[in-house]
Design goal:
mainly alpha; 69% helix
């Protein structure tokens, strides 16, 4: 990218690949577009180059920018089929159910099981069981609704 990167209103942050410009903006305190730009780094830079910046973006106070940073981690897992130990640790620290939920699910989907750290393997088992229980619960609810409808039709006729 060009040295005079226009941060304001530029819609091409997904094409962002200028590590020096990202670092300079971070050091100057211009947090606002850096989470979005971290997604661009995940797309256009190596995992080793993007990872430290994604981790720094995960610590932003701005909720939107933090969310973009976790999206960048999920994107990195999708593209590279792996994450750095620091990204695994950051996702584990945030945990499922918050900003990291989609990134953790992307990691479980796109990183081979044998390459996952133990905590992520446990999360895969836990999420699989939870998802199956939710599915069975919905099936039971659908069955109960069908019985209720049949009883109402019978009562009304």
């Amino acid at each position: 990218m060009t040295p005079g990167w226009n941060w304001e209103g530029d819609e091409s942050l997904l094409c962002f690949d200028d590590l020096a410009a990202w670092d300079a903006a971070y050091e100057s305190g211009r947090i606002r577009p850096l989470g979005s730009a971290a997604i661009g780094l995940a797309f256009n830079c190596t995992l080793a180059e993007a990872s430290p910046r994604i981790i720094r973006a995960m610590d932003f106070r701005d909720a939107a920018e933090r969310g973009f940073a976790f999206t960048a981690a999920g994107t990195a897992a999708r593209l590279h089929g792996e994450l750095t130990p620091q990204l695994y640790a950051a996702l584990r620290a945030e945990g499922p159910g918050g900003f990291a939920d989609d990134a953790i699910r992307d990691t479980l989907t796109f990183v081979p099981y044998r390459q996952l750290p133990p905590w992520f393997k446990w999360q895969m088992v836990r999420m699989t069981v939870t998802d199956k229980l939710e599915y069975w619960g919905m099936l039971c609810q659908d069955g109960a609704d069908a019985v209720r409808k049949a009883l109402r039709r019978r009562r009304d006729s």
